[in-house]
Design a protein that fits this description.
Blueprint: H1 3-79, H2 83-92, H3 99-120
GO cellular component, one term: mitochondrion
Keywords: Mitochondrion, Transit peptide
Family: Belongs to the PET117 family.
Amino acid sequence: MSFAAKSFLAVSTAATVGIIYYVHSNQQSDRERLRMGIERDLERQQRKLENRRELDRQAALTVQLEQEQQNERRTITTTTTPVSNVASKFERQGEKASSFYINQTMMRDRRNARAFLRKATPTGP
């Protein structure tokens, strides 16, 4: 075998080994990236599920809070006396209700309602 043939055989063998090594390492890195992608997808799905549960929990708490606030408003509304009721109460007793007294009564009821709301409204997280 001539020197040129031996050198061509050596170079082609080295090139073949290099190509095989490159393809093999490329496949390994592709497999690793696929594995990491699957793990990321599983983590993402887990976070999405946790976020969904938290959103549902917060929605339930919001509904509960709104119901409590409506109940408090109903309580305040039933405890306050409208102007017509105050006036009719005095007229039934044979007296005329003065607008000053009616205004004073309404202002007192509003102050009481505001104070009740301040106490009943939760502050902070």
